[in-house]
Amino acid sequence: MSHLVFMGGLWFALNILGLGMTYCIIKAAIDTSKGKGGEHS
Amino acid sequence: MDSALIPKGVNRCPLSELILKLGPVVAVLLWGVVAMFMCWIKGLNQTNMNDSYGFALWIWADLTVIALGGGAFFTGLLRYIIGKDKLKNIINFAVLIGFICYSSALLILAIDIGQPLRGWFIFWHANVHSMLTEVAFCLTCYFMVLTIEYLPLILENRQIDRLPFFHNLSHNMHEIMAVFAATGAFLSFFHQGSLGGVAGVLFGRPFAFREGIFIWPWTFFLFTWSAAACGPCFTIMLLKITERITRKKLVKDDVVDLLAKIAGWMLTTYIIAKIIDTWYWAMVTAPSLGFELTDFYSNNPFYGMWILILEIVVCGIIPSIILISKKGRSNPVSFMTAVVLAVLGACVNRWAMVLQVMAAPVLTFEGWPMYYPSWQEVATTLLPVAYGIILVALSYRYLPVFPQEVELNPVESEDQGGKAKKAALSGAEVSPARA
Amino acid sequence: MKNDQAKKYGMVIDLDKCTGCGACMVACMAENNIPFKEDESNKLDSITWMRVYQLTNGKPYPETDICYIPRPCMHCEGDHGHSPCVSVCPATATDYSQKTGIVSQIYTRCFGCRYCMAACPYHARYFNWWDPVWPNGMEKFLNPSVSPRMRGVVEKCSFCFHRHQLAMNKAFVEGRRELEENEYQTSCAQACPSGAIAFGDLNNPKHTVNQLAQPDNAHGGQPKNPEVFRLLEKLGTNPKVYYVSSREWVRRAGDNYLKNENPGKAH
User: How confident is the model at residue C263 (pLDDT cuts 50, 70, 90)?
Assistant: First the structure.
């Protein structure tokens, strides 16, 4: 039981971080390819 | 020479001056590195630890540095989850301090274990019932969060920000920073608590042992609480030191006042809980195991009642009273005193929960062993302090750590000039001078 | 199988017989390949799985009395297998065996965090602050059944578990699964010249340790014999090493009591 709680919490946290960063990086790549992100856009 | 890297609208000293000033810090760093390699190559006999003091200076340093780095998670919680928007002016600095504190803790841990190359076993052969396992996992995950929170600041360096991808990346990260901050707060709650749990579950050591709720001894909650109270105080203390060294005001008074007030209330509620816990432990728990309170504070050359009074009264009640009162906060002397005492309180509490635990005898036929650290232990503990100073110096120099710096220190004193600076210093709203 | 119940290997040490000679310590060191320093005068970082302490009743002459207490690892059971050290190890390098009652230590898994040492109130656990250095030629005299340890790991008394393994191997070959009392004895028990140390299965009514200690399994293993006590009984560690003494002050020295508390049966 404690095993489930522990591993559950851990993987929940890791997934949030992983998904969050993946979203940021991919969106940044897409935005850059669309030409956004210059000095004032 | 490096002016291209310096943020716009601010003054920085010449690079040569910085290098000169950081010289002694680098020397301390190198001394620490030498000691670190001595410990890794020759073994832990380089320390003054022994079988009675398996936990010593390093473990104390770990616990303290993590408690004081709690300013990062708590300020993040206040800003992103509770919505205290004003704290955006200090959150970068808090995150930087947190990053330094946690990387220091991980470094010290890498030196402290007997077989550093087997360090990964704590992940691979994890014992889910052990508090230390929880600490290791949460610490590592939270360090990832701190890195994620620090990264946008680095990406906002003038030269890096010019590259569209990095500009977009930092922008996107700022957009969802609340998610990272929430995860960070969740992880912090558990590892700050588990560090308290490390001591509280030791039912073989009546000085450390506490009752609790479910699997969590009361020290679990007390540690998280004190980290939330003393961490921001540490951030404020370092801010004041940084302002003194840079001879600039970097954050407006109302921001610092807000953070200090919240920390003050956290400290007050914490110290009440701590007093109740100490009373119950002294009157009920320890006697059930055969110990009077005085047994833990007598018959030895160092640990007396003074340490309990220092922790709870001098470093707990007094700064609480100062920080929750407007008068106490507005007087610079009492303010700094309170902030420093709160930081000291966290240090003393962690010392008691590590070193006094080891020192206090349990068997009736043993005495109190005494301990002082070896130079290798001191050097390796100062190593992260030196590294922290260098990282703060470099971050301050090249990254926009303080959003209010430009407003508070207008570089070209134009039409508004001194008037603007005066208004800005008191925290009043002023249309930003075109710097 | 008729006698298939779990074993609980433990010890009963008669403190009225112990002379403090230290033969148990020497035997243990030889049997278990315990490393030593060139200068052993500082006992704070010496490894002594079995350690003999000297106690005194603190009274002036002519009422002065001393007592020697040999202290191996207690192999605490705690509450249903929750030894104070086992629950805290982050790498599962130590384990309580429900079959034998012995707390094991996996040297190759331990990464030396020393949390178990902080947890143990009996100071039964020792850390290898150095790598072992054997004087010239001594490697030939090491016990091949016991692995030597590297620096940076924790070690402790194993109730000579290698002897259990050897005895079980012999029993298997002879087609049986049960061991006689004298087939598995620790080296300290065998070496004691006054026979102060008895070792065996606390659950087996035929074994000396059971007859001497009369452990009450319904109450955390507390000894029914009023002259028998365990160290730090109140902590709830449920240790497997019992001590016998006819002397009241010796029994009182086994645990912590408040000033006016009468030592009786705890809980």
Answer: low
Contact C113 B114 (CB under 8 A): yes
Written as one letter, the residue type at B122 is: I
Chain B, 293-312: which have a CB under 8 Å from a chain C CB? Answer: 295
Chains C and A touch (3+ CB pairs under 8 A): no
Chain A partners of B144 at a C-beta cutoff of 8 Å?
17
- Is CATH 1.20.1630.10 the right assignment for the domain spanning B49-371? yes
Helix, strand, coil in percent for chain C, rounding step 5: 25, 20, 60
Residues of C in contact with B357 (CB under 8 A): 118
Question: Which residues, other chains included, contact C172 with Cβ-Cβ below 8 Å and sequence gap of 6+?
Answer: none
pLDDT of B416 > 60? The answer is no
Give the three-class secondary structure for C68: strand
Higher pLDDT: B431 or B231? It is B231
3-class secondary-structure state, position C212? helix
CA distance B140 to chain A (A): 10
CA dihedral defined by B327, B331, B336, B338, rounded to 10 degrees?
Answer: -20
Considering only alpha carbons, which residue of chain B is nearest residue C89? B130
CB atoms within 10 A of CB B44: 26
* DSSP assignment string, B3-71: GGGSPTT-----HHHHHHHHHHHHHHHHHHHHHHHHHHHH-GGGSS-BTTBSS-HHHHHHHHHHHHTHH
pTM of the model: 0.92
Cβ contact B256:B185 at 8 Å? no
Burial (CB < 10 A; 0-12, 13-18, 19+), residue C225, is middle
Q: pLDDT class for A7, splitting at 50, 70, 90?
A: confident
Show me where the domains of chain C are located. 9-252
Position C187 pLDDT exceeds 90: yes
Is residue C1 pLDDT above 50, yes or no?
A: no
* Between A6 and B51, residue with greater pLDDT: B51
Spell out the CATH class of C9-252.
Answer: alpha beta
Task: Tell me if residue C104 falls in helix, strand or coil.
Answer: strand
Q: Which residues pair with C96 in a beta bridge?
A: C103
Contact B167 A13 (CB under 8 A): no
How many Å apart are CA C92 and CA C134, to the nearest integer? 29
Q: How many CB atoms lie within 10 A of CB B200?
A: 28
